[in-house]
Design a protein that fits this description.
Largest sheet: 7 strands, parallel
Distance between the termini: 36 Å
Number of strands: 13
Shape: globular
CATH architecture: 3-Layer(aba) Sandwich
Strand order of the largest sheet: 3-2-1-4-5-6-11
Bound molecules: nicotinamide-adenine-dinucleotide
Helix content: 40-55%
CATH superfamily: NAD(P)-binding Rossmann-like Domain
Low-confidence stretches: none
Length: 336
């Protein structure tokens, strides 16, 4: 089966593609290799994918920007994709305050191109990355898919919520099966240099100060990458179906259309300061802490309710945070 993975040189796309390659799927990956963070890391991930696919020759990479409709269209015409996993996006909460236009391009225009081509090519399941940030100013914890999500607190979240709404319109109009995944702070080897874990480990190992937002009081539902990949694989297998009975439901994450929204999290939030203490223990080093106030656009606490996932796709075992952090730190030392 031929599967398209967008954002394949990115953190999550890379891991998912790796798993698909190992499972002998025929994987086509695309990415524009932008310089939001070090391109060397993106190229190194692609090298790993080439290595993993050497035996079965089941991976091909294309440098394409999803905003370029023509190139994307040609890719869809030349390859008869069965399913699409869409991870390409401008990620990052804080950067959306600096460069909002990049979010409009990749996350809205690019997303529309993907959606439209999935419709024209009758893709059997489009799985795309949304984010826990759509829960925005919500106070009810843990965050549940059935909660209203009408108060995004930065443009990044607003684009991700827009993706969910755009997907719904296509699921309803054209019966395109879509599942939006709300990721909760994914971490692990090959992780993103703009995310807290990478920045903390980097500076702790070279005795440089680390900046701690909201004085370490943030709570995050850190989710280990392998757990997220296992969950994504289950989501991919089970496309949502039309269900007229859901029409009566007030649940905004359900629909009469072949549409679904699902949280992918660990359901075990921890404060930032305790997270740092664990890193200090594993590295055997004390961090030089620079405490900063709450940053504009930051959500104070994220916590995923994952009952819906467990009900639809069955429970998946979660990696212990200490083990996950050790794996990241070992990878970081080897890679850098
Ligand atoms: N990592 C997390 O904790 C997390 C949490 C919530 C949501 N997400 C979402 O999951 C997805 C993957 O995140 P990630 O952590 O792997 O981020 P990432 O930045 O590592 O990966 C995204 C990839 O998409 C590519 N890309 C960006 N714009 C593109 C465009 N216009 N055309 C083609 N390629 C483009 C980038 O070059 C990058 O390689 C994103 O949609 C992100 O918003 C991630």
């Amino acid at each position: 089966m031929k599967i398209l993975v967008t954002g394949v040189a990115g953190f999550i796309g890379f891991h998912v593609a790796h798993k698909l390659i190992k499972k002998k799927y025929n994987v086509i990956g695309l990415d524009n290799l932008n310089n939001y963070y070090d391109q060397k890391l993106k190229l190194a991930r692609l090298k790993e994918l080439k290595k993993a696919s050497k035996k079965n020759k089941n991976f091909k990479f294309f440098k394409i920007d999803i905003c370029s409709e023509k190139k994307l269209k040609n890719l869809f015409i030349k390859n008869k994709f069965k399913k699409v996993l869409h991870f390409a996006a401008q990620a990052g909460v804080r950067f959306s305050l600096k460069k909002p236009e990049q979010y409009i391009q990749s996350n809205l225009v690019g997303f529309f191109n993907i959606l439209n081509l999935c419709k024209s090519h009758k893709i059997s399941h489009l799985v795309y990355a949304s984010s826990s940030s759509v829960y925005g100013a919500n106070k009810k914890i843990p965050f549940k898919e059935s909660d209203g999500v009408n108060h995004p607190i930065q443009l990044y979240a607003a684009t991700k919520r827009s993706n969910e709404l755009m997907a719904h319109s296509y699921s309803a109009l054209y019966k395109l099966p879509t599942t939006g995944i709300r990721f909760f702070t994914i971490y692990g080897p090959w992780g993103r240099p703009d995310m807290a874990l990478y920045k903390f480990v980097k500076n702790i190992l070279i005795n440089k100060p680390i900046e701690i937002y909201n004085r370490g009081k943030h709570m995050r539902d850190f989710t280990y990458i392998d757990d997220a990949v296992n969950m994504i694989m289950k989501v991919l297998q089970k496309a949502p179906r039309q269900n007229k009975n859901n029409f009566k439901s007030d649940d905004p994450s359900k629909s009469f259309a072949p549409f679904n929204i699902i949280n992918i999290g660990s359901n075990k939030p921890i404060t930032l300061i305790n997270y740092i203490k664990k890193i200090e223990k594993i590295t055997g080093r004390k961090a030089h802490k620079k405490y900063l106030n709450l940053q504009k656009g930051d959500i104070i606490k994220t916590h995923a309710n994952i009952l819906k996932f467990n009900k639809i796709y069955s429970f998946t075992k979660k990696t212990n945070l200490n083990d996950g952090l050790k794996n990241f730190i070992n990878w970081y030392k080897k890679y850098n």
